[in-house]
Structure formats: C-alpha cells, structure tokens
Amino acid sequence: MEDLREEIKKDLDIFDLICHIAWDKPALTRSERASNVKKRDYFSQYGEQAQKVLRALLDKYADVGIEHIEELGVLKADELIRDLGTPLEIFKWFGGKDKYLTALKNLETEIYQMAA
Predict the structure, then answer these.
(1) Which residues make Cβ contacts (< 8 Å) with residue 109, sequence separation at least 6?
(2) From the CB of residue 110, how many other CB atoms can be counted at a distance below 10 Å?
(3) What pLDDT, on a 0 to 100 scale, did the predictor assign at position 7?
C-alpha cells in the first residue's frame, strides 16, 4: 500500500495508477494528459473566452487532479478562472450552464482519451 501512495505522489490520477497496476498500461501523468489535450484540436469548437476557461480548467487538472475541476465552486475559488469572469459570465460564453457542464464533461473525455 505504501508503494501505491508513493506512485500517487508522482502526479498520477487514480485512473492511471489502477490501469498501470491492473493491466500494466503505461501511466501518464496529469501533465502529460493535459499536454495531449492541448495537442489536439479540441478547443477550436469554442469561442475565445470559453477556450480561456477550458485551458484554465485543464491547467488546474494538471496541477491538482480531476476532482478539483468537476465542482462549480472552482469558478469562484480558483484565482486563474475567477479572474476570467463571474460564473454567470462563464456560463454565458458557453451558451448556458448546461452547455458549460457538457463542455466540462467533454474536456474530461479528452483528458482520458488515449494519446494518438
């Protein structure tokens, strides 16, 4: 169990840790996963302001993990995101709260997509 704890400290999501241990898959760090998303043409489907929000969420993921971007409170709590606008402004850039939540789920799908 101690070895697992040490592996988690190496910038790995629990997803990658489990895949690595159970199926001997290469474990990507959060930074590597974020970098893979940035290499794909994911952000271009959104407007400029929405792209800034998604990039800030991706950077937050790389720093601290997926669970920290899934909560709406991140829009108020995280300095980089908070400086982009209020939660209502952010929702507006996506076309509403539901579309923001859909974009967030799509970002998560992109994060966990296998590298090309």
Answers:
(1) none
(2) 18
(3) 61
